[in-house]
Amino acid sequence: MTSTTEQRQDLATVWFRQLRDEICSAFEQIEDDLLGTNAGQLAEQAPGRFERKTWLREQEGETGDFGGGEMSLMRGRVFEKVGVNISTVKGEFSKEFRAQMPGAEEDPRFWASGISLVAHMHSPMVPAIHMNTRFIVTTKSWFGGGSDLNPMYPDEQDTAEFHDRLKVACDKHDPEYYPRFKEWCDEYFFIPHRNEARGVGGIFYDNLDSGDWNADFAFTQDVGRAFLDIYPLLVRRHMERPWSDEQRRHQLFRRGRYAEFNLVYDRGTQFGLKTGGNVEAILMSLPPEAAWP
């Protein structure tokens, strides 16, 4: 790795940690601000707080420093389960995985850093969400990530504002980003065996290497900022609304769809498991409860 690459790795790692801290702070403030008008017994509970747990990556048959990560998990009264994980790992791709990663066939060594977030809410009126961004280095380097909204009951205003905020972030860098990354998201977060979308979309991008690393990094930062701008607003809009037992059952069925996608199709899950990541952190995305008909 050249010194320039190492400096870029440091910058990306610091950013992902900073974004994690800002998101966790914003979510804990939401926990504090729940009035409880319609939250019933949830309002009687203490506001949730993130618990952090570090882990170290191991590479089978080898010893050394292969990096690791830090899980931040909160079970609160607004957030039934939310994880905001960061990791920075390195090592070698397995033989069966090298062909899937740009630049790894020439040299199996890799370095990767990123942030991954999934929020499952107590209220079926508040949308669940996913967001992640990452920087990966092999003999090549690139950014990837995105965010998609997963409401139990789609709300036109929420969907429009969520997409508008992502579009603003994209348009700041390239007017072609939003339509391209939106379409990519719609195609990626689709459940073929159900013939349905996982949610109401967002953006998804991968292998972003425009030739201007600073511009690609700035875009990835703006994706994180866009998430932080819009999602707390959506949570606050709906978190005091009442819900019924039937709406809760519907929420659990929708969570089943979410779990199916993440276990069968999600690339991040496959990447983590095939690179010796922490299983608990990888499967953080799964809901605390789900149901199937």
How would you characterize this protein structure?
The chain has helices at residues 3-33, 95-98, 156-171, 177-188, 213-238, 245-264, 267-274, 279-282; strands spanning 51-56, 67-74, 79-92, 109-121, 128-137, 141-150, 190-191, 196-197, 202-208. It is α+β, with helices and mostly antiparallel strands. The chain has a single domain, classed as Coproporphyrinogen III oxidase, aerobic (oxygen-dependent coproporphyrinogen oxidase), CATH 3.40.1500.10. The strands form two sheets. A seven-stranded antiparallel beta sheet has the order 1-2-3-4-5-6-9. It has a two-stranded antiparallel sheet with strand order 7-8. Strand 4 and strand 5 (128-137) form a beta hairpin. The longest helix is centred in the first third of the chain and has 31 residues, at 3-33. The radius of gyration is 19 Å and the shape is globular. The termini are far apart. The relative contact order is 0.15. The model has no long low-confidence stretch (mean pLDDT 92).
